[in-house]
Write a structure and sequence with these properties.
single chain; alpha/beta; two-stranded antiparallel ribbon; globular
Length: about 260
């Protein structure tokens, strides 16, 4: 009988000293090693990671997908638990992964939900929105996409399991932090996305009300009170900015040609 596979946790960081410790404490005893790939922190993140037992590597920022793939290559073991520094594994998910690894996974990849938390709060709201991503996987079978803006695992035709437990996602320190993150993300998207100008101009007047309604009603931000209103506004604002940035990028490209 073969022994259970060992598990590497892979985390990419930049200036996460205020959040990384909670992420690492939540996986103590669950993983066999922690790999932290830092892209130039100035707040002591690498030293904190080392003090908590992580193997720390430096890699200049190369985009979401490539940075995640670099962290996979740094791991000693083929089974990867990929987390961000602002994600905390819940006790239920901890026990579920521990049992799965002990008996040996049946599938090459597993999804689990990342439930979002508003800035300043300590737990998700009622009916909190979430992302359901593959974050536990065998790197010999599946890998992160080599994409600058999409940090998702390419599972190809491989079967994927669903875990019942979830992780808690403390994605922003403040609402201004959310705006800054969205601005950074839409800057990358504007360079990568190709849309005809006429389609953008047609869509532009409807983008804000459409996105705000989608977030506030259909993603249930109405359960968050004022936090829900502000979160929906920032999401809609970012989508409008993305369209404007695409138009600007196309104009600059045309002027150079």
């Amino acid at each position: 009988m073969s022994s259970p596979p060992k598990l590497s946790a892979c985390i990419i960081t930049k200036n996460e000293a205020d959040r990384l410790a909670n992420c690492l404490r939540a996986i103590e005893g669950l993983v066999d090693e922690v790999v932290v790939v830092d892209s130039g922190s100035t707040d002591g993140t690498p030293d904190m990671a080392r003090q908590m037992g992580a193997k720390v590597f430096h890699n200049d920022w190369v985009g979401y997908g490539p940075q995640k793939r670099f962290s996979e290559d740094c791991a000693s073991f083929d089974w990867i638990l990929n987390l961000d520094a602002d994600e905390v594994v819940t006790p239920q998910l901890y026990q579920e992964i521990k049992a799965l690894m002990a008996r040996g996974p049946d599938l090459p990849a597993y999804r689990f939900k990342l439930r979002n938390v508003y800035p300043g709060k300590d737990k998700p709201r009622l009916w909190a929105d979430y992302h359901n991503y593959v974050r536990l996987y065998d790197r010999r079978k599946v890998r992160f996409r080599d994409s600058l803006v999409h940090d998702t695992v390419d599972t190809r035709d491989e079967p994927v399991g669903q875990l019942r437990g979830s992780a808690t996602h403390f994605s922003a320190r403040s609402y201004e932090h959310i705006r800054q993150k969205l601005d950074s993300y839409t800057n990358l998207q504007a360079k990568a996305l190709k849309k005809p100008a006429w389609a953008i101009w047609t869509r532009l007047p409807f983008e804000y009300p459409f996105v705000f309604t989608r977030y506030f009603l259909f993603r249930c931000h109405f359960t968050g009170g004022w936090d829900g209103v502000l979160s929906s506004h920032l999401a809609a604002e970012a989508r409008v900015k993305r369209l404007l940035k695409i138009l600007k990028a196309q104009k600059e490209l045309k002027e150079k040609s």
